[in-house]
Amino acid sequence: MNPHRAEEAPRTDAVQLEVHGPRQLAEVLPYLLGYYPDDSLVLIAVYDSGRRFGWRLRLDIPDSPERWDEASREVAECLADAGSAGERPPDGAVLYCCREPKGGGTGRQVMERLRPLVDHLRVSCGMLDVPIYEAVCLSQGLCWSYTCSDRECCPAEGVPQGRSGHSVVAAVAASAGVRVRGSLRELEARLAPFRHELVASQELALVQAQNAWMRKMIPEGGSESVKQETLALVRELLDRFRSSSPWKDEARSAPEASPTSGSRYRADDSYDDGLLSCEEAARLIVGLQDQPVRDAAGTWVGPGDAPAALRLWRALARRCVGGFTSHAPTLLSLAGWVSWNLGDIPAAQVAVQYALRRDPGHRLARLVHLACNTGAPPTAEMTLPAPRDGAERERL
Q1: From CA 24, how far away is CA 30, in angstroms rounded?
Q2: How far is CA 392 from CA 6, 55, 73, 257, 375, in A?
Q3: How many CB atoms lie within 10 A of CB 69?
Q4: How far apart are CA 311 and CA 317, in angstroms?
Q5: Between 32 and 260, whose confidence is greater?
Q6: Contact 244, 168 (CB under 8 A)
Q7: Count of CA atoms in the C-beta half-sphere (13 A) of 151
Q8: Would you give the DSSP letter of residue 254?
Q9: N or C: which end of the chain has fewer CB within 10 A?
Q10: pLDDT tens per residue, range 314-334
Q11: How wide is the angle at C-alpha 254 spanned by C-alphas 286 and 259, nearest 5°?
């Protein structure tokens, strides 16, 4: 199972909105996370007798029903963690099951297939005195309630979720500056190894850069020399990315995404991929694996460089192809660090979770991950919890 900690949406403490019924619960979900979840279980903690949403948790829906009991126990452990950390456990929770049908199935079939999983979760949470107030399934633009038996309110054929961006929820979110960046799958695709005719050339360049790096490190003083060469290349490429933007307004970051914005993301990322040669990318990917170089590059980037740096780190992560995918967590962590500095917590969480899936012990990824959940800047002095494979919760 691939658990993910959910992304934190921008704080909107001054905004109040009453949410009623499965349809509005479906509408509010992407604004709580900052994206549209794919193939996900999402648990939203509820406080103050249902008047306030709290932390949220997201994990992949296990494909095999044999693993559903395990997933339920992991969710229960997260609830127990709240008490062990000295927090007040939530009064209850709202559960979402988000999955699209496969192989010609229907949304209603998805809902029925996931019903035993929902039952497992309701029992596990109930045993900890945290009742599931509402459990809904979202599939094919429809929503179903697992808890409501009123067929006038929640018909068997499901309730339409409504047009995205055309609701009271969307209007309130827009006025509060809360935006949805697209789907989780689209956000992760921006970080995945690219697939086109340059893959073989990029992997060959990485092999050559690795060999050259090892030769340069052997002589006395070689480490400092390689560090300075790598940082000089970082500066050169940052200047290039800063002066070459796919957007008319270079000062702003990527445009807000819609549920169908994957094509725009692909166009922007393809533009950035074209700003790098295979050799330049390989030298940076290899050189940044050295922790002092990585740390220097991360702290050297100033506020004015952040949008260009984020594009550069993402582009380099996409070039970690073939046998060099293990190099990606360093670039993903740097992307997460820049996103955190820009205040884009959802993007930071997606980047570091993607990194931690490949290397659960990657220290920078875990530091940024912890910072996203505590609000404290990532520092070497932070005490990190032991890596765990189970689901973890998001504190808001």
Answers
A1: 11
A2: 9, 11, 12, 26, 17
A3: 16
A4: 10
A5: 32
A6: no
A7: 2
A8: S
A9: N
A10: 999 999 999 999 999 999 999
A11: 110
pLDDT at 333: 95
Q: And the tokens for 190? A: 């921006």
β-partners of residue 136 are 96, 145
Three-state DSSP state, 90: coil
Largest Cα span, the chain: 78
Distance CA 371, CA 376 (A): 5
| pLDDT tens-digit map of 67-111 | 998 888 888 777 666 554 556 778 888 999 999 998 889 999 999
Q: Which residue in 305, 56, 357 sits closest to 365, CA to CA?
A: 357
The residue type at 218: I
Number of Cα atoms under 13 Å in the Cβ half of residue 157: 2
Amino acid present at 262: G
The amino acid that residue 100 corresponds to is: E
Tokens standing for residue 90: 């939530």
Tell me how far apart the alpha carbons of residues 368 and 183 are, in angstroms, rounded to a whole number: 22
The CA radius of gyration of the chain, in Å to the nearest whole number, is 22
Whether pTM exceeds 0.85: no
Encoded tokens for 79: 């609830």
Helix (H, G, I), strand (E, B) or coil at 3: strand
The length of the chain in residues reads: 396
Instruction: Name the band, by pLDDT with cuts 50, 70 and 90, for residue 304.
Output: confident
